Amino acid sequence: MKALFCCFTTVAFLLATPGTTAAQEALSLMRQDQQRVPATAYAPRTPTCQGIAMISPGAGGSEDGYRYLGEVMASLGYLAVVMGHPESGRRALQEHVVRSGIRDGLAALITEQAAYRGRFMDIAASRKWAQSRCDSSEYLLVGHSMGAATAMMEAGAHNKLGIRGTNAFSAYIALSPQGAGIIFPDDAWADIRQPVLLLTGTRDDELGGASWQTRTDAFRSMPAGCKWLGVMEGATHMNFAGRGMSRLTEIRTAQTIASFLDALHGGGCRLVRPIPGVEIDTK
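User: That's the sequence. What structure does it adopt?
Assistant: Structure tokens below.
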């Protein structure tokens, strides 16, 4: 068994210390439909590339956001790629909001089948680029909010939009995952067999006002086998996006991801020691 890193001290130090950023590269990638996909790549900060981490933003997000996740994954030895999603990025969200208002516009975007099909093409284009630069068979899909829905669909979650994933990643990380509702039916995640880390917070309420506790639906539905659920005291939805007063959430997120991957590589997928401020359940 190989330990990947000293997870707590490494990621906390890198996030808290100025001047320790990973090398970034702005990308313009070609999708299979000949549309350009903007992306930002973060080079691994280790001698060898551990794997590829694809990062899918929430609705209205872009390749310029989620820098802390790109930095974290790079510090852990991954080639990280934050994708821009043209069909569900800033401009698409603005158009929906102008037509329908903030809440209804956002609800319309996150339930738009074409937006997810575009996201899957973005993932394929970004993965193809990354494969030519990282000699590893490990692939992670990390998503926040709409990106979390994207990750769960790709992992095999049943959904109301008719989207079918390929289950082509080694593991999935979902920040602010959705519960049963307008995207997913009850027990939608029962067929997901791959390792999954889910993270939410006690102030991470769902669109429409449902309690953050609905975000634990996926964990309860999934079969046992390297499934983790982390709940952070006081963390909000946008804290996980790296916006607002989010530094503590970012550090705790980094430590939890590092601990999960270390446990995954160790073979037993067991939580070795608690993470301050994060209540973790495993199965």
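The mean pLDDT is 93.
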